Amino acid sequence: MKRVLVATGGGDCPGLNAVIRAIVYRASIEKDWEVLGSIQSFDGILKDETEVKVLDKDAVRGIHYRGGTIIGTTTKGGPFAWPVKKEDGSYEFEDRSDYMMDKLKELGVEAVISIGGDGSQRISQKLYEKGMNIIGVPKTIDNDLKATDFTFGFQTAVEVATDAVDKLNTTAASHNRILILEVMGRDAGWIALNSALAGGAEVCIIPEIPYDINKVVERIRRRYDKDGRGFANIVIAEGAKPLGGSALAEEYGEIGNENLKLSGAADRLARELKAAGITADIRTTVLGHIQRGGIPCAFDRNLATSFGVKAFEMVLEKQYGQMVAYRNFEVISVPLEEAIGSQKLVEPDSQMIHTAKGVGIAFGD
Amino acid sequence: MKRVLVATGGGDCPGLNAVIRAIVYRASIEKDWEVLGSIQSFDGILKDETEVKVLDKDAVRGIHYRGGTIIGTTTKGGPFAWPVKKEDGSYEFEDRSDYMMDKLKELGVEAVISIGGDGSQRISQKLYEKGMNIIGVPKTIDNDLKATDFTFGFQTAVEVATDAVDKLNTTAASHNRILILEVMGRDAGWIALNSALAGGAEVCIIPEIPYDINKVVERIRRRYDKDGRGFANIVIAEGAKPLGGSALAEEYGEIGNENLKLSGAADRLARELKAAGITADIRTTVLGHIQRGGIPCAFDRNLATSFGVKAFEMVLEKQYGQMVAYRNFEVISVPLEEAIGSQKLVEPDSQMIHTAKGVGIAFGD
Amino acid sequence: MKRVLVATGGGDCPGLNAVIRAIVYRASIEKDWEVLGSIQSFDGILKDETEVKVLDKDAVRGIHYRGGTIIGTTTKGGPFAWPVKKEDGSYEFEDRSDYMMDKLKELGVEAVISIGGDGSQRISQKLYEKGMNIIGVPKTIDNDLKATDFTFGFQTAVEVATDAVDKLNTTAASHNRILILEVMGRDAGWIALNSALAGGAEVCIIPEIPYDINKVVERIRRRYDKDGRGFANIVIAEGAKPLGGSALAEEYGEIGNENLKLSGAADRLARELKAAGITADIRTTVLGHIQRGGIPCAFDRNLATSFGVKAFEMVLEKQYGQMVAYRNFEVISVPLEEAIGSQKLVEPDSQMIHTAKGVGIAFGD
Amino acid sequence: MKRVLVATGGGDCPGLNAVIRAIVYRASIEKDWEVLGSIQSFDGILKDETEVKVLDKDAVRGIHYRGGTIIGTTTKGGPFAWPVKKEDGSYEFEDRSDYMMDKLKELGVEAVISIGGDGSQRISQKLYEKGMNIIGVPKTIDNDLKATDFTFGFQTAVEVATDAVDKLNTTAASHNRILILEVMGRDAGWIALNSALAGGAEVCIIPEIPYDINKVVERIRRRYDKDGRGFANIVIAEGAKPLGGSALAEEYGEIGNENLKLSGAADRLARELKAAGITADIRTTVLGHIQRGGIPCAFDRNLATSFGVKAFEMVLEKQYGQMVAYRNFEVISVPLEEAIGSQKLVEPDSQMIHTAKGVGIAFGD
């Protein structure tokens, strides 16, 4: 029996379970393969007491439909920076990659499939360089990987964010209010742009186009008549930055440090609008983790399933050091080395921005 | 042609449009009635330049399906406190109720239907005492009116909040995190209780049961094993208060004063949990106005439609000074005087709390 | 360890899993109880090889969110009519209730909770009369039980049907078409009435009001102008009957005999409209099992959870021969004997029909 | 003031309104353009009494969110086959294209944007050949146009169909049933394939792969154990054909002739399975027009909006005789002549079929 080990790393993302299920279903067609899941990303292998789970068809039946990941994930640590508690209570990080290689040999693991974002794939590449038979599956709701046209989870996040814009539209119109919705996306404006366009927002603020608050104010004013009648929906990406300023994440190291969420981009914009003399009521909503959860849309389930099938077939073909990617409607493989670190951002002069401006959306530029 | 004037006051609420449509459709069966909508609550009548809209069947076709209110609403002012700008730029509030009575006479309005919350119905009662032919239709997503078993909008808010809990569940489980969801409800815990129960939350914090942070901590600890494995979803009402403390709204006058949202109940709880030594990751989501928007669920559309038909029939029967109410599955009328100011809160020893504790939900008591 | 056995019988229904979970969670609070699930209704006990499953908290975690029933169900057989294959290949039905009683004793089962519809509860009563410690939990998406104000699953079915009406509305309007939607409900029109009202249908046909095709034709004609412009949405219950005619289920024994779906009430109505000279395009949709499936709405989850908690507490109090019921917003218990066979139908002169007619819905009477 | 006329033709499709809105919003940026809508496809121009509607921003605000088309559509007639009633009551079809050209001149229409399927675009090409300044926008939920990678409406239909598969899954599993879902797609299996893959169906029957009923039976049998335990979800396209047989639409001219829906592909398959000795319960659902209706998903709204902006810009650039298309994530223009009649079908040896087989879906081949 040959064994392939699967791990999911980084923030959770709708479609992870569909990838896992596809790997297991595809593997079950071959007679001599077994799939193991490492619990809580590579922690299941790295910790002293190994924690893996045999994944057969019964274990994964129906999970394509569920958000999250049945084998757990984590955003911390990993084989090259495993936290070890020192006597004084502080942590130091040690390289546990050799331990991991040994453990995998012991378990009879032939190949590893690592499903994760850019950070995870950097680790994949380093493990590959150490000699591990590893294959990457990209994962990010932010859709900011140059190597692949789409990542699963992104479309679901866009649908959830668009639903929020739809819901806020009726409130804004009924109350003559300004409603600001903050969505995820890290340094990229994909979720903001897509949901602003789909929801018919008035203003869309993305990291790739630093906003001039005066331009935003001017646009808002045009939406209100002399009686203060009018309304506006604004979608802002968490990584938004004012002209000459920086994203809050850069200022604070990370929004949500000490595991708590600080006021973010939406709140800053609201304060700036008030400071600039906007008198209309403003309400902000930070959509948060709702964007990462729930049932993946059909598009994402199918993309994720294609990725899973392809990943296992790459194992069969020993295409190690490669990553699954979606290009021009085909699932292909690309070298991990090329894939990592190549961020795909919204280009300010792209067709999509042109379209959005064509239906009157302002970007604060 | 006899005329009935309709106004919607206070925060928007799914189902308002269904009430308006039902009034118009029902009135169209009578040959000699016309429905007017006052724009932006009573402002359409109170301001110098009257702003009303004739509402016929074409104007309201299909609106039962849409959130918000097609005639607008406001949370400020009203006939007894109409803001007038003074020379120094500040405002004083004047009684414009006589002006309103005159204007209605001028417009040939026989009766007024005022759709609104407790504040609006207090105004209805005062107008009734002044001699206005007025009928109230209760409206609140908070479901906190003793006079009626249900108000429209509440069930929709519960469904939206439950969907959020569902979405957060998968993230919490995948990451071993604590996710705190803050929902609306003012002084009442109905939305929190219903969505926590439906979503299967671990902890539910409502204003009616002040929480002992130690009890919450204890419960959370029980959910995690020695490896830090486990997760918990917490639903907290915006009006939640710690034992011996007060709701943030009381502290700050109103959350969201100066039209900006301050950190709320969810953030306070997160800080308290951290302070008490909880090491698990915590993420907070404030659902905000998403709860008020969007498509009303079938239950709310039907309740709202029943209210609208009844309200117009009360006009036909000249049952002025009364409010529509839903009791024991019948739509009836009750005196406005009795209805106002009688808040319906969650009773800590009620069957629903008993049910929630029966499936293991902790309330911090 | 005391044991309680749970079974789900009859057609599946959103909320079944929430009842099961609530029983298990509530039982886990007591130290000395264990819950068993009988697989595929009572078949798990009745067949030669016993098939039961221990249901602990891990087995039911998160299932309140899922449609169907994790312990399976069946619409055939039961302890008093167990099918036994004869030598000639045909079946005879034998009374296996004594065998069942023995088997339960053997398994150490103290009490049985039977979740099911009217048919299942008749069996419960007969088993109770034989001496079984049995408690009933009502289940039907049709909401046609007089003993309880609401049954879980009904509101979900209404929401699904209303969503279908919403979707058909835009097509009907764009094409000047008549769209007929057939919904479930057996002899009762509750689902049809509620979804027609919520969706703003033009015509609603329910079993309780036999329809005069001429009245329906007349109403349809009024919706179209001289240019053939107009549209109409019709919601029809599967049990609908023309004046002087009968429901198709009565004609054919059962719609769907030989396990296949025949043309139903919607198709009959379409043919009648065509025969009466309606020239507009007509399209029919039979919603079918989509109404029974999927995620229960929050309302149903909470009702189902209340039923489950109550049912287990009735076991603790040995209230055997009783059924859980929801009356006037409280979950109570009623004698099975009274509950069975008392059908709750839509009353043609009820307030809800009055409301529907008030917003212009025609019933063909 | 220059005028552009917009018409929507053929079956309705989620996203039509988003195209219309985008054209109007984009046109409003130019100072000297006005948009007219022809009511009920080109009928508004072709009939004796012209019926067009000025579409300004107020007329289209918020419609991107709504299904259907605010200017109506029709599946009959057109400029080259305008039905004229003869004295004996029958119809003959006349060429009204010259009348149409004259009328457009009279109205001062510079250019026409025709949003419609393959049939509509054939008409566009013929009108272009007659000298009309016309631009096409492709529309089909079936996604079967070779000229464009995606058409709006398709993804929404897939999401609706997938939701149906999800709902049927729980019923199938609870009852050990076979549930057959019939979806749209004409001669193409795109909706069936995508929803079967996303929903995790057992069997998927598409027109491109004629099915061998014995293969289907064999697969179904494998899903059931000796006790008759098991279940299966089958998704079948309306255009499905058995090996050596033909699609029902070919047999009957058109399914739904005489404006009534006959039993379709799902019913045929159910009968074939029964005839082949399958004893499990079978239930069929024909999803019908629900797939065409309702709120377009974000993906479709954005695609449709891009199409609308592009179409108007093609008017500005006088790119007549061209059609908007989406290729490799860019919206481009292609000659109508090339675009029409080039059907895109599922290729049996494509990667997507390979993926579906990789997760165990059977196609009856």
Automatic annotation (TrEMBL), chains A, B, C, D:
Kindly list the residues the record flags as site (Important for substrate specificity): G119
Indicate which residues the UniProt annotation says bind Mg(2+). D118
**Phosphofructokinase domain span:** 3-315
Function summary: Catalyzes the phosphorylation of D-fructose 6-phosphate to fructose 1,6-bisphosphate by ATP, the first committing step of glycolysis.
**EC number assigned by the record:** 2.7.1.11
Task: Provide one Gene Ontology cellular component.
Answer: 6-phosphofructokinase complex
Task: Enumerate the NCBIfam families for this protein.
Answer: PRK03202.1
The family this protein is said to belong to? Belongs to the phosphofructokinase type A (PFKA) family. Mixed-substrate PFK group III subfamily.
Question: What is the designated name of this protein?
Answer: ATP-dependent 6-phosphofructokinase
Cofactor(s) needed for function: Mg(2+)
Question: Which Gene Ontology terms cover its molecular function?
Answer: 6-phosphofructokinase activity; AMP binding; ATP binding; diphosphate-fructose-6-phosphate 1-phosphotransferase activity; fructose-6-phosphate binding; identical protein binding; metal ion binding; monosaccharide binding
Origin superkingdom: Bacteria
Q: In which pathway does it act?
A: Carbohydrate degradation; glycolysis; D-glyceraldehyde 3-phosphate and glycerone phosphate from D-glucose: step 3/4
* Top-level class of the enzyme under EC nomenclature: transferase
Question: GO biological process: any one?
Answer: canonical glycolysis
UniProt: substrate binding residues: T140, I141, D142, R177, M184, G185, R186, E238, R283, H289, I290, Q291, R292
| Active site residues per record | D142
* Complex formation: Homodimer or homotetramer.
What InterPro entries does this protein's entry cite? ATP_PFK, ATP_PFK_prok-type, Phosphofructokinase_CS, Phosphofructokinase_dom, Phosphofructokinase_III, PKF_sf
UniProt keywords, alphabetically: ATP-binding, Cytoplasm, Glycolysis, Kinase, Magnesium, Metal-binding, Nucleotide-binding, Transferase
Please list the reactions this protein catalyses.
Answer: beta-D-fructose 6-phosphate + ATP = beta-D-fructose 1,6-bisphosphate + ADP + H(+)
What are the binding positions for ATP in this chain? G11, K76, G77, G117, D118, G119, S120
Q: Where does this chain mainly localize?
A: cytoplasm
Q: Which organism is it from?
A: Haoranjiania flava
Where in or outside the cell it occurs: the entry states: Cytoplasm
